[in-house]
């Protein structure tokens, strides 16, 4: 499995190299700064961070050499064997539709970066966006994270007879299904939330018969109490790969802490580093909307120690991080964070 993951990363580095060479954004034997390169490519300002992360990934593998702010190719650039995508995706546990969609996106990357076309419509053309997002999350690594998160959720204590559960950014419901199965024999009030009615509507259809299920819109960037979540009301808060979307993470963590009782449990999954494959695919969705302020930093994903400090400041103690760095599952760069709300 990790062999396939490494091969997919190498293929994706080749995709980056191909775009930069084909568009003459970074020709052979030419030194350019990231700004000059983005200008030559015609990158839309909101996507310039993506190309800068490409350059960071390519320099990390020494495919690109760096001299101050200037960059140039270091020998022969990596190659992209696009025909290998279906086999690699299958080995990693993804449905075949994801390889097809990624190949489509790769073909359109220059136009996507220039904002001449957008990724969201491409996803819509691929079918129901909820199903597409669900397919993106159907892989061996995310499945293992969700199963472990669900097992930890089963151990969460309740202040009374009914476990109060809040799920943030429920999306396509992959984490939801795992947690509901784990809590099948628990008396619970489970509140599924997302910022989009597209996902709450799909969840309503999927989970309407679940006992104790509630559904509603919730924005991480607004006060929770104004959105119907009372302070200190929750025993368990879960968030599957969503907290990186917060505009102001410290403030959002403080909001989560405010709605959680002392000793309550926070379980969330996050990537802790760039994924080269996703930098040529789904990470385009992380660019700010056209006309909105640009990203304050190019780094979307934080290492564990930065998370630990952010959680501490917000009133949490990080109890555990899974999988351990030595675990083969760690190669995907996803981690499950298990924290508890501490009293002050």
UniProtKB/TrEMBL annotation:
Domain Methyltransferase type, chain residue ranges per copy: 166-266
Keyword Transferase: yes
GO terms, biological process: methylation
InterPro entries cross-referenced by the UniProt entry: Methyltransf_12, SAM-dependent_MTases_sf
Protein name: Class I SAM-dependent methyltransferase
EC supergroup of this enzyme: transferase
Organism: Pseudomonas canadensis
Keywords, comma-separated and alphabetical: Methyltransferase, Transferase
Xref: Pfam families: Methyltransf_12 (PF08242)
Molecular function as annotated in GO: methyltransferase activity
EC numbers on record: 2.1.-.-
């Amino acid at each position: 499995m990790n062999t396939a993951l490494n091969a997919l990363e190498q293929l994706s580095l080749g995709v980056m190299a191909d775009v930069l060479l084909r568009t003459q954004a970074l020709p052979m034997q030419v030194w350019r700064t990231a700004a000059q390169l983005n200008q030559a490519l015609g990158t839309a300002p909101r996507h310039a961070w993506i190309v800068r992360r490409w350059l960071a990934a390519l320099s990390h593998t020494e495919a690109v050499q760096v001299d101050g702010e200037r960059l140039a190719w270091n020998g022969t650039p990596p190659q992209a064997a696009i025909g290998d995508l279906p086999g690699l995706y299958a080995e990693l546990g993804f449905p075949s539709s994801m390889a097809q969609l990624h190949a489509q996106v790769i073909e359109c990357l220059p136009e996507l970066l220039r904002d001449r076309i957008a990724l969201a419509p491409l996803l819509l053309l691929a079918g129901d966006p909820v199903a597409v997002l669900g397919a993106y999350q159907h892989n061996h690594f995310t499945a293992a994270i969700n199963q472990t998160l669900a097992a930890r959720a089963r151990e969460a204590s309740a202040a009374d007879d009914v476990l109060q559960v809040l799920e943030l950014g429920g999306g396509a419901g992959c984490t939801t299904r795992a947690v509901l199965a784990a809590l099948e024999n628990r008396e619970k009030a489970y509140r599924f939330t997302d910022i989009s009615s597209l996902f709450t509507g799909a969840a309503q259809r999927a989970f309407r018969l679940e006992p104790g299920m509630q559904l509603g819109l919730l924005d991480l960037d607004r006060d929770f109490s104004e959105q119907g979540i009372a302070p200190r009301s929750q025993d368990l808060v879960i968030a599957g790969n969503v907290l990186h979307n917060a505009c102001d993470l410290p403030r959002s963590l403080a909001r989560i802490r405010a709605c959680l009782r002392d000793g309550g449990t926070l379980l969330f999954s996050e990537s802790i580093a760039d994924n080269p494959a996703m930098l040529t695919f789904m990470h385009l969705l992380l660019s700010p909307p056209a006309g909105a302020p640009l990203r304050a930093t190019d780094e979307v994903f934080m290492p564990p120690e930065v998370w630990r400090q952010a959680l501490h400041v917000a009133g949490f103690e990080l109890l555990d991080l899974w999988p351990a760095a030595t675990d083969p599952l760690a190669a995907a760069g996803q981690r499950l964070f298990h924290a508890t709300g501490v009293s002050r």
